[in-house]
Design brief:
heterotrimer, A: about 260 residues, mainly alpha, 3-stranded antiparallel β-sheet, globular, B: alpha+beta, Arc Repressor Mutant, subunit A, 2 domains, two-stranded antiparallel ribbon, two-stranded antiparallel sheet, about 10% strand
Chain lengths: ~260, ~190, ~190
């Protein structure tokens, strides 16, 4: 897999931690550090497998979590009390998470306002520099990765070793997915992976999905908070197919 | 000037103006009309538009007043524009929110909150004129301090910064954090 | 779509549109609404604005409809623009009239009528997009043929070329004392 996917909806280690905490239904001020650390590490490992750009900040956070975890195992002593208020090594992390969460919510609040050139328009004859907040309505990359982990866990154990002999390309999977979306209109995330026989094939399919999201060819969202993740076309099919075709001629785009 | 004529002239002015018009600007144009009278006529217009439920509203924004299309018609108005709009990403929104509530703020301070590098986002926001450099911070390296612009207020339909949605209080914590030595002076929500 | 909603949406569209909107364009945006219904709603809006005597009017122009400020408020609207609109000179107006009545016409033919060189005037009119090159004449040298533009119709408030005013009327229309069509916000930078 050479394709490197970078997504805008990818908001850093604090965002990932908040996501994991929310999913585990635990409190920010009382994080069960061992399981959360484990989930965090599993997620960034998977991100690495997917060739997602795992920025240095993610690794720094991983180190922080491991450090906190080791400190939690030690009985609190005097010197610790001086360094960390009330002896809880998680305090500083909790403070950062809470602060980040406040601004995340403030950002969502801003996105709900009547935004100029999205919800309201003036007579100003300026070029329309409209704003859209696609990232909010759709599911986050972390949600997708969590779902992918579930799919991978369900693969029969022995098939994991079966290295994909047939080389399925991301591009082929993109076309297959588009074909299916044309016929079915709406497709449940998990069902896209049905029939995948190897970890490799699952990952290639997932990458194809991410590529299509990146191209804004498909939309991925959850209809209810706990509902299944669904996919649908976000643009006219011909437009998308043309885009896939033109992207093949990499670096040649300026010529025309 | 009679009330009805004043309202008619105000309508023409709001219609023709590219940006929001402040009471001061209106006063300059409407020589001989008292400021008080202008403001009360403007307010009458605002409620008339609201009540009529028609295609535009008069909105208080960025220190002035501006005619804008009614929100419920956005779907159709959008069709007037062919070009696909520039996207506002979560990174952009989060960074803007931090700057808006904590201004003036340095890039390092924004990064401390978001936990990621914000170089690119800050450059984009500057380019879109949603933020500006307001000063340099008096610490080693003298980094730039950023703040929001009138364009930011216009984009989000805000009268002024005091009308930003209230920032939620931090959850009560077992251990209150030590005061951050680099923390902001202008932290409005205390 | 109900009548009141349709009128509201139309208002938003006219308000936000840069140029006049034709019934065809409106029909394209308002999918599912019959052309007949659109036109009758537009006409209702026109008479409502006229009757209300407020700050804007909906005008039939250049084959479409456009919201414009009421001409009786031109005096104040003009004050919004820092630079006074450039007065159209007699040379410009005469040349424009010749092109309007004789289009398509070559520069040599304009010069033959006016008896003077019109190079500069033609360049200005092209720049202001009041005239355009419509073709080349099939004679030696293949000179350009000029004609008027939709902007020309807009500027003089003409429904179409068959409503052309006389040169004298044009002079009145383009002269600075109000009513001054150039003072209207035509979405064109002066």
């Amino acid at each position: 897999m050479t394709s490197k996917v970078e997504l805008e909806i990818f908001e850093g280690p604090l965002d990932l931690l908040l996501h994991l905490i929310k999913k585990s239904e635990v409190s920010i001020t009382d994080i069960p550090i061992a399981p959360i650390t484990e989930q965090y590490l599993a997620t960034i490992e998977l991100m690495g497998d997917l060739n997602l750009d795992v920025a240095g900040e993610f690794l720094v956070m991983a180190a922080t979590l491991i450090h906190i975890k080791s400190r939690m195992l030690l009985p609190p002593d005097e010197s610790d009390l001086e360094e960390d208020e009330e002896g809880d090594p998680r305090a500083e992390l909790a403070r950062r998470l809470l602060e980040y969460q406040r601004f995340k919510e403030a950002a969502e609040e801003l996105a709900r306002r009547d935004i100029l050139r999205r919800d309201v328009f003036t007579r100003a004859p300026e070029p329309p520099e409209e704003v859209e907040t696609g990232g909010f309505e759709s599911v986050s990359l972390f949600d997708l990765i969590s779902a992918l982990r579930t799919v991978l866990d369900r693969l029969p154990k022995d098939s994991v070793h079966e290295v994909a002999l047939e080389k399925v390309s991301v591009r082929e999977k993109m076309s297959q997915l588009l074909d299916r979306l044309r016929q079915e209109e709406k497709v449940v995330f998990q069902s896209v992976f049905e029939g995948a026989s190897s970890r490799m094939e699952v990952i290639v399919t997932f990458l194809a999905m991410l590529e299509l999201v990146k191209m804004r060819a498909i939309r991925i969202w959850q209809e209810e908070v706990v509902g299944p993740i669904v996919l649908a076309l976000a643009a006219p099919l011909e437009e998308v197919q043309q885009k896939i075709a033109t992207e093949e001629i990499e670096g040649d785009g300026d010529g025309a | 000037m009679e009330r009805e004529q004043l309202k008619s002239v105000l309508e023409s002015l709001f219609f023709a103006s590219e940006g929001p018009l402040t009471p001061a600007q209106l006063g300059e144009i409407l020589t001989g009309v008292e400021r008080k009278e202008i403001v009360s006529a403007v307010e009458e217009l605002i409620s008339e538009y609201d009540a009529a439920g028609r295609g535009f509203r008069l909105t208080e924004v960025a220190g002035g007043y501006q005619l804008r299309t009614a929100r419920e018609n956005a779907e159709w108005v959008k069709k007037l524009y062919r070009e696909k709009p520039a996207r506002m990403t979560r990174a952009t929104l989060e960074t803007l929110a931090i700057i808006a509530y904590r201004q003036p703020i340095t890039r390092a301070e924004i990064e401390a909150v978001r936990g990621v590098d914000v170089d690119g986002v800050v450059a984009t926001l500057l380019e879109r004129r949603l933020i500006r450099i307001v000063a340099r911070k008096d610490i080693p390296g003298r980094p730039f301090l950023y703040g929001t612009t009138p364009e930011f207020l216009e984009l989000f339909n805000l009268k002024d910064l005091s009308h930003l949605p209230t920032l939620k209080e931090m959850e009560e914590m077992a251990a209150p954090p030590p005061p951050d030595p680099e923390a902001q002076p202008l932290n409005r929500e205390g």
